[in-house]
Every structure is written in C-alpha cells, then in structure tokens.
Amino acid sequence: MNEVNYLEIFGYLASVLVAISLMMSAIIKLRIINLIGSTCFAVYGFLIGALPVGLLNGFIALINIYYLIQIYSAKEYFKTLKLSSGSEYVNYFLNYYKNDIRKFIPSFNFEKIVDLNVLVILRNTNPAGIILYNNIEPHTILIELDYVIPGYRDFKIGEFAFNEFKKDGITKIYSEPGNSIHKKYLNKMGFAETSLNERTLFSKTYTNK
User: Fold this and answer.
1) How far is CA 88 from CA 67, 95, 116, 118, 209, in A?
2) Do residues 119 and 131 touch, judged by C-beta distance below 8 A?
3) CA nearest 159: which of 117, 125, 123?
4) For a pLDDT cut of 70, what percent of the chain falls above it?
5) Among 17, 38, 91, 186, which lies 20 to 30 A Cα-Cα from 202?
C-alpha cells in the first residue's frame, strides 16, 4: 500500500481554502479565509523547499493582515433614512435584489409593501440595508423585511439599526424568521423564537430607561 502523503494533502487543503475565499461576497470573510489559506500555502511551500511558493503566499498573507487591520481600525459612519414604501428608489432597490431577498426571506410579499414603514441604512454613504416594518402596538414593531446587501453582512448594520429603534422608544421588535441563515443572524442579534397570532416569529425586548 502507498503511504498517505499528509504534506500533499495539506497543500490541497490550502488550495481549497484560497479557492473558497474567492467565492466570498463579504470582504472581511474573504480576507480572513484567504489569510488562512495563503498562510497554509506559505508553510507548505517552505516545507517542500519551493521558496517562490512560500515567499509569494507569505507576502499575500501579510497583505491580508494589512487590509484586515485597516478594516477593523477604520471609522465607519451609519445613518438611517426614512422613506415612503411607494418611492421609486425603494421599488428599484427591492426589484434589484428581489431574488436574493426571496432566498433569505421567502415569506416576504413584494405586492403588499404600501402600508409599511421603510428604513434604509447607509454605511459610509452607501445604501447597504433596508428594513420594512409595521407599528403593531405602541412601542412595538413587526419587521417584515430586514435585508443587507452582499458585502456588508458582518452584523454591524443590524446592531446599528436595532439600536436606532431603541433610541426611538421601541421596546419590542418582532421579525420574520426567514431561512436558516437569517435565523442565525436574528439569534446573533438577541432575538428568540416566539409566536404572535399563531404566526411563528422571532422577538427581541428592550428595557428603555
């Protein structure tokens, strides 16, 4: 029997990590996974005596570290814009990301947005997210759509938006659960599964002081 070449397997795994990183739409995930992959590839290159492979991937790893430091140390600016659900921009935004929205929030009804409140979240002046919601009780809202565009899905927009609701005096937020990925996001944001009028939702409660 041939002996298992663990070093060769390690090299293949490094290649897979680099390939996976290039499929990431979120720049931070891309940088982190590429950093791991390029570091592994650099180690592999040095272990097999291929200095060009080791040096090149070591340099790529340093570039990833540099940009990750830049990303995490940069000051970001967030702002919310309240728009009409019937505005041309809101309709354009929803239509542009329609297929992606359906993937994350399959239950969202594009035909019934007329009476919903609209909150567009700007991140460094870029329209990065949108929330459509109803005021169902005093200080209570029901979010029908909470969507962030690819490249900005690092929870910062959600944290900012929910903090803005709290500042506005909202004490309870209900949200559509969406798919499994969206449920994980809601759990990360402090939501728990609940029900309202026989409807399965997620909720988050604030204690405003």
Assistant:
1) 37, 11, 15, 12, 38
2) yes
3) 123
4) 97
5) 91
Task: Please give the Cα distance from 164 to 158 (Å, whole number).
Answer: 10
How many angstroms separate the CA atoms of 56 and 74, rounded?
27
Q: Give the tokens for residue 172.
A: 């309870």
With beta carbons less than 8 A apart as the criterion, state whether 196 and 173 touch.
no
Q: What are phi and psi of 73, to 5 degrees?
A: -95, -10
**Average pLDDT of the segment spanning 31-43:** 94
For the segment 93-116, what is each residue's pLDDT rounded down to a tens digit?
999 999 999 999 999 999 888 889
Closest by CA to 146, choosing from 200, 111, 91, 183, is: 183
Residue type, 190: G
Residue 29's alpha-carbon distances to 129, 182, 204, in angstroms, are: 18, 17, 27
Which phi-psi region, left, alpha or beta, contains residue 204 (left: φ > 0; alpha: ψ -120 to 50)? beta
For the full predicted model, state whether its pTM sits above 0.85: no
> Exposed/middle/buried for 167, CB within 10 Å: 0-12, 13-18, 19+?
exposed
Q: What are phi and psi of 78, to 5 degrees?
A: -120, 145
Per-residue model confidence (pLDDT) at position 154 = 82
Residue 170 CA to residue 207 CA, distance in Å, equals: 9
CB 43 within 8 A of CB 6: no
